[in-house]
Amino acid sequence: MPKSPHPRATVAASLSLVFLTGGCAYLEGGGSQSADPDSPECEAFSQWQGNEGTVSVYASIRDEEAERMERSWQQFADCTGIDIQYEGSGEFEAQVQVKVDGGNAPDIALFPQPGLLARFIDAGDAVPAPDSVRTLAEEGWSEDWLNYATVDGELYGTPLGANFKSFVWYSPTYFSENGHEVPQTWDEMIALSDAIAADGVKPWCAGIESGDATGWPATDWIENVILREQGPDVYDQWVGHEIPFNDPQITEAFDRADEILRNEDYVNGGHGNVQTIGTTSFQDAGMPILDDECGMYLMGSFYAAQWPEGTTVGEDGDVFAFNLPPVDPEEGTPVMGGGEFVGAFADRPEVVAVREYLATAEYANSRAAEGAWFSAHQGLDLDGLEAPTDRLGAEILRDPETVFRFDGSDLMPAAVGAGTFWRGMTNWINGEETDVTLDYIEDSWPS
Amino acid sequence: MTSTPTPPVGGLPAKAPGKTVDRSRESSAARVRKRLSTTAASVVAVVIATVWTLPTAGLLISSFRPEEEIKNTGWWTFFTDPQITLRNYGDVLFGTASQGQLASYFVNSFVITVPSTVFVVVLAALAAYALAWVDFPGRDWVFLGVFALQIVPLQMSLVPLLSFFSEGVTVAGVQLMPAWDLQGALAFTNVWVAHTIFGLPLGIFLLHNFVSQLPRSLFEAARVDGAGHGVLFRRVVVPLVVPALVSLAIFQFLWVWNDLLVALIFAGGGVETAPLTVRLAELAGTRGEEWQRLTAGAFVSIIVPLLVFFSLQRYFVRGLLAGSVKG
């Protein structure tokens, strides 16, 4: 007797066929929705139309921040038909190297460290900015910024977002209740610290725990102090290792930071003694400000995202920030910060179009409208910045009086900037002598 | 366990005739069993188990606590001040992430893990059989090579393998193999191949030990009955090594499910192909400002390995023992 075909097998076979034929378009990853290119909303993007394609963007920005960024270029993508495939990873620094070495480089990468971009420039992987991008960049940013992405007179990247790493967070309510004022000079700040300490409150809190990167918040402290104590020229020499890491000028700056960070009368508000700095995460370190257990906390502008929901950030709110005051006000306003640079590994027309768009003031405003972001772009509309600290940061960054320097540890060789400098600072917080720490870091500098 | 050296058991001759050895072995096994089932040993076992589970329990409790509580106090304060919320799970599973809802990454994880496990188990079983029971020249050398491959850390092969996928193979300017250039969801193929390659050496080695221990008489009897290699493999070998196959499958499943590195490089971070682990790594935000989500995220991702482990547990223990205890 011939065996009849199993009905279930037939169904399964035909189902899989249906899926196979129907799923192919999906599997190829095609089918991006686009707006009518002739509609009035798309007029602003007409210059980039006609370059349809896919551009992959890779960066360390992820989760909510990444969503905001993707929304900010959505209209550009819809109108031009350029499909921007964004990928964010916490392992960006290591992975981008693997991707490039493996021949799978992203079209565009957003580098948070100019030093990393420089490595790809040296290796010949990064593509220089075309003239159109260069023109836009020169209109948008000061020389201080562009220098960080320029090698041998050739511009390789344009700045994107900015961080302000000289912010001192404080509670305006606490300050006004106790008659304290925002200090304008370093000496005023020390006097203020003494006054707060006299009230029985620790004037400073700090925390440098950050997983594998433990120690980096302390490097920001040192960099800020060097920039203020010794000025931008010494800072540049120090970062570029033209003067040794253990130069006497650097020792002086360490001693100045020492007066605050390792002073039992000043730290560690809300957490305990000096040693707790090493074990408190930078995310948690500033929280005692809300409970009036700590007066001030030096941390970047991105700390705004850490405050719990319901905290008012503002000049009259629960928390606000001021720029760490200069030692000598005559020297201008030194600011230490960071930011991303848009580097590219391809020069297809659609990649160039995206690079151009990211360098415009329109993009900056579109991104700023999504919130929690600012840049040093001259064309950025300050009224579009929702958060008061973002507005303050952008205002100071664009001020011609401002002397901007990039976070030094992001410019140093990774062995130091993301290694011994962090470890050295951690040991220093735990009581290591300043000389020993400086010698340790100096010895580790790759020759 | 103890640091004090145990003196040799008195009265036992070093090289005794077979029978004596057997008897003493029995009695020592019985003695061990007896000692391990005392109350004190049970208490110690319970204490170890508790200490071992405590951090996970803390994580579980934390995952139900509100964000501020997690960030400011330890999980043990839950007992004095219980506050329960499902917000973390809500964020993780159905959060604002426009396309980043965990469900799609969950599917991706399965799409990556199941084929990678099946490929490894099938290929390793076939290879193990061939290396153990098919006579061909150089067999031992092949096995030695496979064995040696286990030493190569997978990190070393990431870049070559990636360039194999994205640039093809070129020797002296001649393109021997084109680039794969798989877009969209087809990029899963890269991950399957990568995981299979990385999983095979251990798999072959593990199964080879099992398969080669099967009694020769079985194979001879089957051959007399007219069985070829195909029948031998299907009807004799596979049924006998099921525990080993299952334990290899569990190993491989857990390894692939928990893998972040291979997925990051070969699957990328897009919602189309990235598995759960990649999403979990991003969950905390660029600067870790939302790390309270990790508590819930960890438990969501733990569920599947737990299910797999508990449902196949009896095979797992049997498979492990079958490899270590012979005779």
Structure in words:
The complex is a heterodimer of chains A (447) and B (327). Chain A is an alpha/beta fold. Chain A folds into 2 domains: 52-164 and 337-404, Periplasmic binding protein-like II (D-Maltodextrin-Binding Protein, domain 2); 167-334 and 408-444, D-Maltodextrin-Binding Protein, domain 2. Chain A is 43% helix and 14% strand. Chain A is built from 18 helices and 12 strands. Chain A has helices at residues 7-27, 64-72, 74-80, 92-101, 114-122, 131-140, 143-146, 172-177, 186-198, 216-239, 248-261, 276-279, 282-285, 349-358, 361-369, 388-398, 414-429, 434-444; strands at residues 53-59, 82-88, 108-111, 150-151, 154-155, 158-164, 167-170, 202-204, 294-298, 320-323, 333-344, 402-406. In chain A, strands 1, 2, 3, 6, 11 and 12 form a 6-stranded mixed β-sheet that branches. In chain A, strands 8-9-7-10 form a 4-stranded mixed β-sheet, with helices on both faces. A two-stranded antiparallel sheet of chain A has the order 4-5. In chain A, helix 2 (64-72) packs across helix 15 and helix 17 packs antiparallel against helix 18 (434-444). By secondary structure, chain B is an all-alpha fold. Chain B has 2 domains: 24-85, no CATH class; 102-324, MetI-like (MetI-like fold, Orthogonal Bundle). Helices cover 67% and strands 2% of the residues of chain B. Chain B has helices at residues 18-36, 39-63, 67-72, 87-94, 102-133, 139-149, 158-167, 188-213, 216-224, 229-240, 242-258, 261-266, 276-283, 293-311, 313-324, and strands at residues 169-171, 174-177. A two-stranded antiparallel sheet of chain B has the order 1-2. In chain B, helix 6 (139-149) crosses helix 8 (188-213). Chain B starts with 17 loop residues before the first helix and ends with a helix. Residues 1-21 and 323-327 of chain B have low confidence and may be disordered. At the A-B interface, helix 2, strand 2 and helix 4 of A face helix 3, helix 7 and helix 13 of B. Chain A: InterPro entries: Bact_solute-bd_prot1, SBP. Chain A: Keywords: Transport. Chain A: Belongs to the bacterial solute-binding protein 1 family. Chain A: This is Carbohydrate ABC transporter substrate-binding protein (CUT1 family). Chain A: It comes from Actinorugispora endophytica.
